[in-house]
Amino acid sequence: MKEPIVHIGIMGGGKISFKLHGSYSATGYKKDFKGFYNAICESGTIDLTGGDQVYPVNGEITFSPIDFNNSYFILKNVTIGISFHWERKEDQRFQGSLKLVTNNDKIIAINILPVEHYLLSVISSEMRATSSMELLKAHSVISRSWLMAQIEKSKELKSSSTKYQSETRTDEELIKWYDREDHTLFHVCADDHCQRYQGITKAHTKTVHNAITQTHGLVLTYNKKICDTRFSKSCGGISETFENVWEPVKHPYLTKVVDYKSEIKNYDLDLTKEKAADQWIRTSPPAFCNTADKRILTQVLLDYDQKTSDFYRWKIEYTQKEIAEIIRNKSGTDFGKIVDLVPLARGVSGRIIKLKIVGTKKIFTLGKELEIRKILSTTHLYSSAFVVDRKNVANGIPQKFILTGAGWGHGVGLCQIGAAVMGDKGYRFEDILLHYFKGAQIVKYY
Fold first, then answer.
1. Which secondary structure element, helix H or strand E, spans residue 392, and what is its range?
2. Is the Cβ–Cβ distance between 199 and 383 less than 8 Å?
3. Other Cβ atoms within 10 Å of 264 Cβ, number
4. How would you label 312-351 residue by residue, b for 16+ Cβ within 10 Å and e otherwise?
5. Residue 356 in 3-state DSSP?
6. CA–CA separation, 359 vs 365, rounded Å?
7. Strands 397-406, 173-176: parallel, antiparallel or unpaired by DSSP?
8. From CA 132, how far away is CA 380, in angstroms rounded?
9. Is residue 432, in this structure, part of any structural domain at all?
10. Are residues 88 and 234 in the same domain?
11. Which runs of consecutive H residues, i.e. helices, occur in 131-227?
């Protein structure tokens, strides 16, 4: 099979500024394009200006490099870390083609290039290029597998007559997950919502190149279908199932995995039970991802990730005023004073998948895990695996809430910190993959 081509949504806005280094051809024009351009959306069309020239574009335009290896383009003011505490804008460089397409009075910038070139950036963007070879090889396989699964899913969605649904809503409850609803114009996005992708902005070392070359075309499959290989920073000791985080579809290879080399004693590992989850989250059981070794953590964590150090276990405190204001701002609803936060259902990792918010003015149930994380923080909680302590209760109203939590991220699939520890301990990339993706097979796809 020929190496596939991937379309990555980089950014969107009413105006996009970019610079073409090298010569590019463009759909609808016989001339070559190079240099600096502004694209502005006007009533579903694009006004493209470069120098003193204006190029009207009806709906979309694609710039393709004449010489792929010696050309690149720069997109100005790309937002990275959207809605996270490290969110910021930066100029980013990309190889391949640039497609601009209008959508709802905005222009979407899409990068088009071969999969293996995409992986060079993802592996360097998701972790340090100086990570261990076995970790980089493992991540190359799961990044490639996840991408190919999304491309296949895009084809299925386009050919389906059924509209993709990602929420159920009543007056008393909202159950919502975030996955494919905003990715109809491209295969994947460039931020943490998908896989962190920053073009050739980040340096690619020989180690990264070798990891991708040595695993060229390798993917994980289950029952002859490419695995939807998810990953997060820290599972917190036990990984979560796919259906508890995203759409209600079971994937046997995305199931509960105890992130350790042997059985963990003195714990009830059925974390769907409140008592077991409470003990697990409030303590620090052994796990591959239970590490404070900075040498290992820096393999996975880029500079802005390292603003946080409490990945395995964490704690956050809110006054009554703070939590009531955050919930009001994030939900758009005045709950009054917050009386309680009640876990109604937990997943196998202890992550809350249904949370009842009890206020003096409103009671409402929320899920799934990311929706819970979003409503209880100005950005995102590290995870939804937390227990709640109500402090200084006066007339039934707590004056302080303490959330004690486990892990960072959704916890499904590969645990990046755990995998880094395994790589450091000498595990081969095949062992790492089959530890986190039970029953999967490693096969050559192209």
1. strand 386-394
2. no
3. 15
4. bbbebebebeebbebbbeebeeebebbbbbebeebbbbbb
5. strand
6. 11
7. unpaired
8. 29
9. no
10. no
11. 133-159, 206-214
Q: Pick from 247, 239, 281: which is nearest to 415 by CA?
A: 239
Q: In this structure, how many other beta carbons lie within 10 angstroms of the beta carbon of residue 400?
A: 15
If asked whether residues 189 and 292 sit together in one domain, one would say: no
Alpha carbons 322 and 403: distance in angstroms, whole number: 13
Domains contained in the chain, number: 2
Distance from C-alpha of 266 to C-alpha of 262, rounded to nearest angstrom: 13
pLDDT of residue 211: 94
Strand partners, 174: 169, 366
Amino acid at the residue 8? I
Instruction: Answer whether residue 435 is part of any domain.
Output: no
Cβ-count burial of 148 within 10 angstroms (0-12 exposed, 13-18 middle, 19+ buried)? buried
Is the same domain home to 147 and 279?
no
Two tokens, residue 373: 């994380």
Average pLDDT over residues 315-327: 98
Residue 61 is encoded by which pair of tokens?
């335009």
- Domain enclosing residue 162, as ranges: 5-214
Using one digit for the tens of pLDDT, what is the confidence trace for 243-253? 999 999 999 99
Whether 222 is in a domain gets the answer no
Residue type for position 212: I
Q: Report pTM.
A: 0.87
- Taking alpha carbons only, the member of 317, 327, 336 closest to residue 397 is 336
Q: Are residues 236 and 385 in the same domain?
A: yes
Predicted local confidence at residue 88, as pLDDT: 77
The DSSP 8-state label assigned to residue 272 in this structure reads T
Closest CA to 39 of 118, 90, 87, 110: 110
Residues 108, 250 share a domain: no
Tell me the pLDDT band of 62, cut-offs 50, 70 and 90. Answer: very high
Residues 237 and 340 in one domain: yes
C-beta of residue 83 within 8 angstroms of C-beta of residue 380: yes
Establish if 87 belongs to a structural domain.
Answer: yes
Mean pLDDT of the region 337-363: 98
> Do 158 and 7 touch, CB atoms closer than 8 A?
no
Report the C-alpha gap between 350 and 71 in whole angstroms: 48
Distance, C-alpha 299 to centroid of its chain: 18
What are the tens digits of pLDDT across the range 433-446? 999 999 999 999 99
Query: DSSP 3-state assignment of 40?
Result: strand
> Where a domain ends, among 214, 242, 270?
214
Q: What is the C-alpha to C-alpha distance for residues 205 and 212, in angstroms, rounded to an integer? A: 11
Residues 326 and 378 in one domain: yes
Q: How far apart are CA 100 and CA 56, in angstroms?
A: 12
